[in-house]
Amino acid sequence: MHHASCIIHPHQAWRRALDVFESQMPRMKMEPDILSYDLSLRANARAAQWEASLALADRMERAGLRRSIWTYTTIAQALSSAEKWEGTLKVLNSIAEDKLPHSAVSQAMLITATSEVTKSWKAAWDVWQHFKDKGSKLQPQVVTALVNMLASHGEDMRALQLFATARSRTEHPVSIDSYLAAVAACEKSGRWELALKIQYLANLNPWGKREGAGGGKGHGRSGLLAEAVAGVLCSAGQWERAMKALSTPKVPMNARRYNISIACTSRCEMWEEALTLLWEWGRKTRAKAARANRQNLEEERRRTAQRPSAEELMAMNRLHVRVPLVPN
Questions:
Q1: Which Pfam families match (predicted)?
Q2: Rounded alpha-carbon distances, angstroms, from residue 135 to 106, 129, 163, 232
Q3: Which residues pair with 2 in a beta bridge?
Q4: What is the DSSP letter of 237?
């Protein structure tokens, strides 16, 4: 009996992964192993297919396969993506019932789920205190979860104090996600000066020096930091500073960044700059739409080229090949 983990890729769509289990595996006489289930669960989690994830979890249990911490966190991710917080909390609590050690990811998810279910920052904070009492360190994922959780409950100062404490510890450097969470807390409390300081500190990190807090080549999440800081500055009416936050270091422009820049230049009565940005954004939008149209036309041409002509269809039917006579 073969195993199926070799034919399931984590980047495939969840429907394809589910089809492997329901159709291809029985036909190929392949037995699912723990890796097969985990990879399929990952595809479900990315698509927020929590029902399919729970169905796979039940199949694992019936097959007698022991779930790993990775299995639990992946199922919880699918549930949390669909905002099924009570189900998320139940799955994460099962980790302790199975006597498995929590990971930093499962700790962070448990903090968030507890906050969403109880609507209490203290209850979520107690979850962290429980882990801390058992010797857990303040990992980057946990820092981000705690800062976001505290800020969402209006505890902005607690969130920023926690971020400062975590940043002062060198054994587990805070991640870009933690910086973004701290900037969001600054926006809620109106502390634009602190948001600028956080952006400056982010540039001192290894990833900040490599990419720049504004993004550089691999802007990704780090590129969001300058955008987030600019949003805080706009909310505080600091238009010139917002423009500077976006321009230094250079940030690849997207829709929100264009909107922020246009708002800033308009407020500062920099009309020519505002019109230039508006024209540039319109040009990029039109170019993007034109590229999409070209791709659609090329795809249609490929489909048309593969379709037999009317004469070919007639010839095939004369040879008794059953092909419907559909006009080209």
A1: TPR_24
A2: 15, 10, 20, 36
A3: 30
A4: T
pTM of the model: 0.69
Cα separation, 24 vs 138, whole angstroms: 44
Residue type, 102: H
Contacts of 172 (CB under 8 A, 6+ apart): 137, 138, 139, 140, 166
Kindly calculate the radius of gyration of the chain based on its CA atoms and give it in whole angstroms.
26
The pair of structure tokens assigned to 93 is: 């609590």
Contact yes or no for 210/195 (Cβ under 8 A): no
- DSSP conformational letter for 269: T
- pLDDT digit string, tens, across residues 45-78: 777 778 878 888 888 888 788 888 988 998 898 8
Which of 121, 261, 238 lies closest to 190, judged by CA? 238
Task: Find where tokens 């109106």 sit.
Answer: 190
- The single-letter code of the amino acid at 30 is M
Nearest alpha carbon to residue 70 among 31, 109, 32, 120? 109
Boundaries of every domain in the chain: 1-100, 270-328
Residue 71's SS3 state is: helix
212 phi, psi to nearest 5 deg: 85, 140
Beta bridge partners of 178: none
Residue type, 20: V
